[in-house]
Amino acid sequence: MIGRDRELRQLTQLVAARRPAVVFVGGEPGIGKTRLVRELLTTLPEQAVALVGQAEPDSLARPYELLLDAVDGVDVPAGRLTALTDPQLSPVERLHSGLSLVADLSGEAPTVIVFEDLHWADSESAALFERLADTDGPRLLVGTYRPDEVSNRHPLASLLERMERRHAVTHLRLERLTESETAALLATVTGRPVPYRTAAALFHRTGGNPFFLEELLGSCAPGDLESLVEKPLPWSLAEVLRRQVASLDPAAQRVVEAAAVLGRRAPFDLLAEVTGAGEDELIGVLRDLVVRGVLVEAGEDEFSFRHALVREAITGQMLGRQRRRLHESALEALQRGGDADPALVAHHAQAAGRYADMVSAARRGALEYLAIGSAYQALQLAEMGMAEEPDDLVLLSAAARAAWLAGLLDDAAGYARRWRDLADGPADRADALYLLIRLSWEADDLPWLERVTADLEQLIAELPPGADQARAMTAVAQSAMLRDYDDESLAWADRALALAAEFDLPQIRLAALVEKGTVLTGYSERAVEGRAILSGLVAEAERRGEWVLAARALNRLLHMPQTSSLTEQAELLERMRRDAERAGFEALAVAAYYQGRARLAMREGDLRAAIGALDDGRARDRGYHYSGRRADYHAVFLAGLCLESGALDRVRRLLADLGGIEKVDPMVLHSVGFHLACRDGDLATADALLDRVLDALRAQPWRSGEQAHDLLSAALHLGLPLPRLKQLSEALLDGQVWDHWRTLVEAQVAEVCGRTAAAFDGYRSVAGTPLLAPAVNGTAHLGAARCLLALGRDAEAADRVNRAGELLRHWAGWRVEQLTQLQAQLGLAPADSRHTVTGIAALTTREREVALLVADGLTNAELARRLYISPRTAAVHVSSILRKLGVTSRTEVTTALTH
């Protein structure tokens, strides 16, 4: 059920409610309406009754066709079926016979009644559907139909209108699969992730229609998926598609053939030139083709085929000379226009055999598409040109950059190496090496990164002072930053900045500042300086069109310990996504974006939402085959959150996935495995893995306070012997760690060592700091509470526990278990009754922000725009705020907040 989870969940919820409900499921042929219904039926309880009737195109001649089909095979007395079609009975009597039959078959059991393809239904079946909607009982009534076949005069149109007036009707419109859903479907069928190129090509070839995808998949061997990109359509599918245009008159046929040759989108003016049709004539033909469902108006004065494969089926029937003549006519028309899309020019030039024109257009188009962030399109154009000119440096450099931005690292590396080897001067070679530095890091190949950096350092001496030398220095600064050689990175960045100032090189200044600011944000004592550098360069980078630099700077800011509001963080995240999309930078526009959403949810203290955000991102990437650092971008983060929530079985599956990735960081496997063993209570495994963790830490040049807290907390949960515990904490804190994390971890160690007063001072000093997430703050309060209990200060301990309860209200797992234990010790309300808290104290951090905006008079739509959430989510927040504050209107919120 790829891409249909939400719709299936809605249907199952309606069945579970055991109340009368009506659902209309709409969508084009092959979109998955029948499959959705079948999947719903598999979820029904054993005692449920299911009646499914299928209409046929010729069913108008047979009354109650849908009901008769639904009860086919059911033991029903013949006389009752005859009553449905007996001409001696009045229409009302026959209708009541149908209603009575359904009622007898249903009884009191939960029932699902499905009428498939209502657009073909006979009038009696439609009337029965309408009357069934009026009946009581635990009954879900589902009707499927094709919206494009329902005109204003169609009986179903008036039925839909009447049902809307009289009932609470749910409409589910099934859309075509997205590109990522297409990749997920292909991966599910084949049992392995698919290359991005294959998924993209099949998505464009089928338009994301599941039926077409399945038909194509059925025509090839499971391991030969790539062949489907160019393989001819199966005969049966081609015949189905050709039938859509078989009855067209010659004028319409000529337009359809021209549109098929012109590509995915056919501009009106180009169609007119190629076909020689007058404007009025062409408008009339196109209107008819749109009404028939052959074409759709895809944009202003642009037309495309409703189903992409129809175009392919039509061109497959045309003569080769006929296709070439149409392509040549289109090419000449585009060249006369002067400002045509170079991708269109290249496409028609190639098909017309005009290869010099094709290479020229591909060269120009690749650069233009790169400039607007269409990385994959730029790559396709560059590769089209290189089919004729494989050593063209402009095309090679464009292909390498485009493939990198699109996440196709192997392709990018191949093109970048050829670009480097064919470079006709040190400046061009330096540019290729700059990209190879980034590629070697993303491929997680440290030896390669070292070699490329050494080559670039040697090349710097050959370059004269100026832009080329400064750009090369910036590349070396980035390499050092990526390898955690911070002092070296700062030195190279400062050298590049000096040259940028001397020769007035604003773009290079921005690039060097990104590397310098990124390094400085890793030092607690210089983080403010680093933040200022990165914050200060974003607007200028955007103004100059340096979208990659702007997105990188914003991404780094989002990873820093935050003191700004959630609203400001959400704005930064959306700004990063927009800039990354403008660059076509897939890694930040998609993968990093979902991780950013997860971090925002953690700052709200909402563990379920954080896991949901990572699941969304993982689902978006899951169908594709990635290598290097993006092989499973979300798995480590997700495993950490699952360890938080106690979903240990899921952690085991994630760990198995990580173990199957080539070149996975051993520290990842050892630390997640150690943490899992601790939560599992497996002392022997944890002790064995601890030595591997310690070895990996010695090889890890950086330290993370979050990593230290997570691993130490797990060790404390297990009851690791004190000497081993101290050994772990010393290794985790042996380096640069932010003060608030260091203090928290040292307090945890002090508590277990019996130094209660010192532990309390540590917990107290960090509890409540905005630099820690709410859940971690809650743990600090609980630690302080345990210390206060040990010191005999029970009232203060109770206050700490209550504050922790507020912070952990949307959390789960071991932190909440600690909370529940302390509540029991102090005789406080258990964790599951915390919802009784009311007033301002009951509001979450996000709800407080929303409440202040409501008090300022913002509507739900304005809240949605300000907070980058949907209006529906805004409405949910407002409803929760009114309930918790005990008020009934938005105007009362201001009063409640000020008292």
Helix content: 55-70%
> Which CATH-level-2 architecture of the largest domain?
Alpha Horseshoe
Strand order of the largest sheet: 2-3-4-1-5
Instruction: Give the DSSP E fraction (strand runs of 2 or more residues).
Output: under 5%
Q: Specify the structural class.
A: mainly alpha
Summarize model confidence as the mean pLDDT: 89
The CATH class label of the largest domain is: Mainly Alpha
What number of domains? 5
* Low-confidence region ranges: 831-836
Gyration radius, in Å? 32 Å
CA distance, first residue to last residue: 51 Å
Sheet of most strands: 5 strands, parallel
What form results from the Cα inertia axes?
A: globular
Please tag this protein with its features.
899 residues, mainly alpha, Rossmann fold, three-stranded antiparallel beta sheet, 46 helices, nucleotide-binding, P-loop_NTPase, ATP binding, ATP-binding, Sig_transdc_resp-reg_C-effctor
Brief summary of the model shown:
The protein has 899 residues and is mainly α. Helix content is 66%, strand content 5%.
Write up what this structure looks like.
By secondary structure, this protein is mainly alpha-helical. A five-stranded parallel sheet has the order 2-3-4-1-5. The protein has a three-stranded antiparallel sheet with strand order 6-8-7. Strand 3 (111-116), helix 6 and strand 4 (139-145) form a beta-alpha-beta unit. It comes from Catellatospora bangladeshensis.
